[in-house]
Amino acid sequence: MKNLLDIKYWLFDLDNTLYDGATKVFEQVDKKMTKFISEKLNVGPEEARKIQKNYFQEYNTTLNGMIKHHKIDADEFLEFVHDVDLSFLDKDEYLKKEIEKLNGKKIIFTNGSRAHALNVTKRIGIDMLFDGIFDIRDSEFIPKPSEEPYKKIVENYKIEPEYCIFFEDIARNLKPAFEMGMKTVWIKNNEPWAAKFSDANFVNYKTDKLANFLKEINEIKRT
Ligand SMILES: [Mg+2]
What we know:
This protein is of the alpha/beta class. The protein has helices at residues 22-41, 45-59, 62-70, 74-81, 93-100, 114-124, 147-156, 175-179, 192-195, 210-222, and strands at 9-12, 105-109, 132-134, 164-168, 183-187, 205-207. A six-stranded parallel sheet has the order 3-2-1-4-5-6.
């Protein structure tokens, strides 16, 4: 594995990684999923919730379960559930400044949709800083932490894994990246399911805040 200063490829998860307070988004998306399932499958909200959580457990995303079992239209689902209020998100000049200083390819790697990634990054004021967004459609609806999307993003963007670093709030999503030779950084948080495996050997670094971590790298580079 190479040195942090040799990194040429920067992969960022979106929700709860590029901004804090994902619970505010997640709660809304969560509710919209329940609503979508309830309407599509003609079941009450409680039954819809059970289905939603079961699919999330079994297939890593609710969408995947819905596609497998009910042949729903993925675009319709994604558009519906990501239509949420993002007005709580403010411009993040600090993060912007630190991302701007990084050399190399910068790519967003999300289990959500491209439209949602654009909505979020525009609000934070960092949408112009990335070379690409690899979303759930690009991964053909096979979500992290399945290995397939990691292989695909590496192929699509011609990434050399040993010169790549991946930032994520869900610790288990770091495992395939580590196994491919990437450096991994866990964004600390208190969600039990996201923090699970955060002490595993596939987590190279931990940080309270992405911008702080980037700042440290940028400062070492200057000296
Ligand atoms: Mg996330």
